[in-house]
Amino acid sequence: MFQFAKAPRYLLLSALLTTSLSAVANNATSLPDIGTTAASTLTIDKEIKYGDMYMQMMRASRPMINDPVLSEYIQDLGHKLVANADGVKTPFNFFLIQNYEINAFALFGGNIGVHSGLFLHAKTESELASVIAHEIAHVTQRHLARTLEDQAKKNPATMAALIGSLLLVVAAPEAGMAALHTTTAVSMQGMLNHTRSNEKEADRIGIATLAKAGFNPQAMPHFFGRLAEQYRYTTKLPAMLLSHPLPESRITDSRMRANNYPKVKLPPSERYLLAKSRIVARNIGFSKTSALNWFNAELKKATPTQRQELNYGKGLVYLDSGQYNKAQQLLLPLISAEPNNLFYIDAMTDLDLYKKQYDKAIARLEKALQYQPESSVLQLNLANVLLEAKHYQQSLNILTRYSYQHPNDINGWALLAQNYAKQNQRAGELAAMGELAALRAQWKLAISNYTQAAQQATLGSLDQARYDARLDQLRVQQAQFEALRTSF
C-alpha cells in the first residue's frame, strides 16, 4: 500500500494542554459544586467533543500509522469487542501509533490508541484483545471523567493542573508522571489511588467483554503476568506500566476473575499474525536487515501453519527494499492459495505498481471488490493504481465518494490532493490539502488553502460556492476548537 511521510513529533499535545490549563486555572475558584456522578463534570456530548479535539492534536503530534490494512484490522478487532461490551454510550475509534514502547490508552469519546510495539509482546490475538478490552472498559466506565470529578471535589484549586496531568499520563506517561509531581502531594496520591481502583475495575469488566466476544479470558492475566515478570527488576519501565501499574494483587485478582469463565482454546488467528508481520516489516522501526533477521529467527521455530504469515512479512521487506523477484517468490503462493485475503491483495498490488503492471492490479482489485465492495483497503488501492495508470477521472470518482464517506481518513484526502495535482487542478489540490490540515487542527493553514482554492476557482462557479461554504464551516470549527480548548 502507498505510504505517506509521518507527521513530525511536535510537542503540540503538551502545548495545547498548557494553554488550556492556564485559562482553567483563572476560573478555578468559580467551579460549581460537583455531585456524585461523572456526568456532572463532563457530559457524554462534551466527552465526544473533547475526544475529537484530542484526535486532531494526536494526528499533528504523534507518528500515527495510516496504513489502511492495519487500520481495518484494528478497527475490526476493536469493534468486535465493543459489540460485546456493556454500557457503551459513545462511538469508538481505534488507531495505531508507530512506537516501539509497549502501550495502549483510552482518550475521551471512545478513542483508543495502540502502540505498534504491543504486537511484539502479545503472543496471541486474545492477549492483544485483552489490552483493548481493558481500554474499552475505561471508556464505558468513564474513568477519566470520574477521576476528574473525584479530584475536583477534594481540591478544586488544582483542577487545571490535574486535568493536564491526567491526560498526559494517559497519552504520554513519562511526561504525565512528571506533571503529577507539580501538583500537591495530597492531590497526587488521591489521583493515583483512584487510578489503581479504575485499573482493577477495567480488568474485571474487560475480562467479561473478552469472554463474551469469544476470546480466551485467561489471556489478560497471562499477558499482564508475563509483562510484570519481564520488567520486575528494571529501573526503566515501559509506558504501559507507568500508566497501568501491575502490582501482584492486581494480577492475582485478574487471574481469579478469569478462572470464573470456561477455558477457551483457540487456534492461532491468521489476521493477527499477518498484522503482526506487517508491523514488524514496516511499522516497528526495524531496519530491513533487522526485520529479515527477526523473520528468519521466527521461521526456524514456527509451526507449519505459521510459516505463511512470516513469509508474508518477509516478502514485504523484500518488496520495500526493491528485491521484487524475491518478494514475488514468497507472495505469489500466498495469494494463489487465498485470493481474497486483503493482506495479500495489498502486497501484490504494491508489487504490480513497482513493475508498472497496472492492468493486472486493476483486474485483481475490481474482482475483489465484487465480494467486498465496502473495503477501504480495496477502494484506496484501486484509486491509487488508477492514479498511477493516469486514469485520473476514474480515480477521482472513487476518491470523491470515499472522502465523503470517510471524512476523517487522511489517506483519501492525500490521494485526492495527488490526483488534482497530477491534473494541474490547483483549486482541487488546495481544497484537499485544506482538509488534511483541518484533520490536524491546523486551522490557519486549512483556511489559507481554502481561501486560495476559492480564488483559483472560476468566478460564480459551483466549485467557488462550495469552497466559500467550506471556509465558513472551517472558521466555525476553529472557533469551537478554541472555545473547547480554553474552557472546562
Structure characterization notes:
The protein has 488 residues and is mainly alpha-helical. It has 2 domains: 12-258, no CATH class; 270-485, Alpha Horseshoe (Serine Threonine Protein Phosphatase 5, Tetratricopeptide repeat), CATH 1.25.40.10. Helix content is 68%, strand content 3%. It has 24 helices and 3 strands. It has helices spanning 12-26, 44-61, 68-82, 117-121, 125-140, 143-154, 159-171, 173-180, 185-212, 219-230, 239-243, 248-258, 270-282, 288-301, 307-320, 324-337, 342-354, 358-371, 376-388, 392-405, 410-422, 426-439, 443-456, 462-485; strands at 93-97, 104-106, 111-115. Strands 1-3-2 form a 3-stranded mixed β-sheet, with helices on both faces. Helix 19 (376-388) runs antiparallel to helix 20 and helix 20 (392-405) runs antiparallel to helix 21. The chain is flat and about 70 Å long. It starts with 11 loop residues before the first helix and ends with a helix. 49% of the residues are buried. The model is unreliable at 4-39 and 173-194 (pLDDT under 50).
